[in-house]
Amino acid sequence: MQPVLVTGAAGGIQGSTGRHLTAQLLGRGIPVRALVHTDDERAAPLRRLGAEVIVGDLREYTTNRTALDGVRAAYFTYPVIDGLLDAAGAFAVAAHDAGLGRVVAVSQLAAGPQALTPRMRQHWVAEQILDWADIGAIHLRAAVFHENLALLADTGDGTRLTLPLGPETTVLPLVAATDVARVAAGLLTDPTRPADPVLLLTGDIQPIGAAARTLGRTYTDTPPERWHRWALDFYRSPHAAEHLTKLWEIFRLLGEGTNLYQITPTIERYGGHPPTTLAAFAAHRHG
């Protein structure tokens, strides 16, 4: 059986969908070729699971062309750092040259040409690049990961979740990274399964005050400029700090949300599992 290529397979501090997907595909008996940027301690568990690990830079055509040789489908994701469009371009050309018929790619819920953060606009451009390559791209426009919110809740003194979101009634659309991976696994296990080219993924909708309490914290508002300074030090990436500060600003302005915030049937339809609520995620995390 031809393998599926999974990029971002080592995972990082954001959602680690590539790592979850690798485990899920291997659990179904689907061989996986896992592309990682660095052969470090995160790559060892992938090998123990049975993945074929390839090391390389996703922004380079030669890395992608080698990784795609002989695969039947692929998963494209890129961390919240500089280089998304470079990676999308190199991957798209290599996938076209390799003759792929299905690529599942992670995007963002509100991606679009007029989106209010540079990262969201870049995701929309990346979608266009992958579509133009004629490789059967399906874009998973995901909400804020439970994992990312929990990561922030674990900082500081362990009692507060500090974000520049205004009042505790400000609403966030959320999704578990494992659910994003489940949807991808469903689409990649059977590359002929029909699906819309853009799928929205939201598994829970919570006011930030309630979300903080679910994670065992008390929500505390903070000025955006102060949070941005903290994020620069925490993420060690100006790109991530700028994107997240702008993202929280959007949610702050939207307040109690818009009709874009809807729990989507896509997760159960393609992932075979009802959406994971933030409460279920928190219980499993501490169970």
Could you please describe the fold and organization of this structure?
Helix content is 44%, strand content 18%. The protein has helices at 17-27, 43-49, 61-68, 84-98, 118-132, 146-153, 177-189, 208-214, 224-235, 238-254, 266-271, 278-285; strands at 4-6, 32-36, 52-55, 73-76, 103-108, 137-142, 144-145, 160-163, 171-175, 198-201, 204-207, 218-221. The strands form 3 sheets. Strands 3-2-1-4-5-6-10 form a 7-stranded parallel sheet, with helices on both faces. A 3-stranded mixed sheet has the order 7-9-11. Helix 1 packs across helix 7 and helix 9 packs antiparallel against helix 10. The protein starts with a strand and ends with a helix.
Overall morphology: globular
As residue ranges, the low-confidence spans are: none
| Ends distance | 37 Å
Integer average pLDDT: 94
Organism: Nocardia pulmonis
InterPro entries: Ergot_Alk_Oxidoreductase, NAD(P)-bd_dom, NAD(P)-bd_dom_sf
Protein name: NAD(P)H-binding protein
Short description:
By secondary structure, this protein is an alpha/beta fold. The chain has helices at residues 17-27, 43-49, 61-68, 84-98, 118-132, 146-153, 177-189, 208-214, 224-235, 238-254, 266-271, 278-285; strands spanning 4-6, 32-36, 52-55, 73-76, 103-108, 137-142, 144-145, 160-163, 171-175, 198-201, 204-207, 218-221.
